[in-house]
Design a protein that fits this description.
Mean pLDDT: 92
Strand content: 15-25%
Largest sheet: 8 strands, parallel, barrel
Order of helices and strands: EEHEHEHEHHEHEHHEEEHHEHE
Number of domains: 1
CATH architecture: Alpha-Beta Barrel
Strand order of the largest sheet: 2-3-4-5-6-7-8-11
CATH topology: TIM Barrel
Low-confidence stretches: 240-244
Structural class: alpha/beta
Shape: globular
Helix content: 25-40%
Radius of gyration: 18 Å
Number of helices: 11
């Protein structure tokens, strides 16, 4: 197909079953880095805290040996209670300092982003209703105010302490999942301080169009996760054959709701063209959130990148 644009493309430990909400048996971190590099990617995210080395010298050396850059770090935070904001700031700044220390050893690479999210699946109702959230399942006004203030407080502290910018990651099983919830948070936070990490799979699972989201938020999208979402993702059948919603977000993951790129509902070709038109100059991070042992991670990673290449995307080194 015709070449559309060149982007630096990363993958992440979540594609190898390393998930904050699923602390089961994990592969060796060295193996994950080896396999990300061997399948053609040029960057990675940090993954769950403590999975990769937290010593910046050791981490930087491990990345350099494999030709990889560190592009971001996912930080879950309980933001709807202002009494916990101090703890949220501490965790985010600790992570951002590691990112900054690694980045300082490779000044040619783009600055990574702090990828902030809700403390997903901490609330039983939101975890159970992921993919079919109702308005009554959301936050009240006091919680919304605390959430927005906490997001800005974290972003300001991270920027002041490390020079790293923060993007917010909407996510199934958390309080910022649906398009309306994402819009509300974007409206309540300053666009120069808080960007958006557009996750195409989570946006689709939350009931929206990832392409419309990219058109809506445009230059506020500072970081992109390419993730696909299986057709009929919010539907499973009970023993009688009736269609019912997933009983939880974790159940959705076990049913491989996030399939390989090109096998679901996300229009990646149109997204690549829109990113080109926006002159997007950030990373594309391919993610396929899976539970440990569910898929052949190496084969999936290779096929995901091959699909993007087939669409006309060229992997560039930063």
């Amino acid at each position: 197909m015709t070449m559309t644009h060149s982007f630096p493309v990363a993958n992440a430990p979540c594609s190898w079953g390393v998930l904050e909400i699923h602390p089961g048996v994990r592969p060796a971190w060295e193996r994950v880095l080896d396999e990300i590099a061997s399948t053609g990617y040029v960057g990675t995210e940090l993954g769950a805290w403590g999975f990769f080395p937290t010593d910046p010298v050791l981490l930087h050396e491990a990345l350099v040996r494999r030709g990889l850059a560190m592009v971001g770090a996912f930080v879950p935070a309980f933001l709807r209670d202002e009494r916990l904001h101090g703890e949220c700031v501490e965790r985010a700044v600790r992570t951002a300092r590691l990112l900054a220390a690694v980045a300082e050893r490779d000044p040619r690479a783009p600055r990574p982003h702090l990828v902030l999210s809700d403390d997903n699946c901490a609330d039983v109702v939101r975890e159970r209703c992921a993919g079919h959230i109702l308005s009554e399942d959301g936050m009240d006004e006091a919680q919304w105010s605390a959430f927005a203030q906490g997001t800005e407080r974290v972003a300001r502290a991270v920027l002041d302490e490390t020079g790293i910018r923060t993007v917010f990651h909407h996510h199934a099983g958390g309080f910022i999942e649906t398009p309306l919830e994402i819009a509300s948070l974007m409206d309540r936070t300053h666009p120069d301080l808080v960007g958006l990490c557009l996750d195409t799979g989570h946006y689709t699972f939350g009931g929206g169009s990832a392409l419309e989201a990219l058109r809506t938020y445009g230059a506020r999208v500072w970081h992109v996760h390419f993730k696909d979402c299986a057709p009929g993702a919010a539907e499973v059948r009970d023993p009688t054959g009736a269609i019912v919603g997933f009983r939880s977000y974790r159940e959705a993951l076990r049913h491989q709701v996030f399939c390989e790129l090109g096998r679901g509902m996300v229009p990646f070709g149109a997204l690549l063209e829109q990113l080109r038109q926006l002159r997007y100059d950030g990373w594309i991070v391919v993610e396929q959130d899976v539970v440990p042992g569910a898929v052949d991670c190496v084969a999936s990673a290779r096929r995901n990148l091959a699909y993007l290449t087939w669409l006309g995307m060229e992997v560039m080194r930063p």
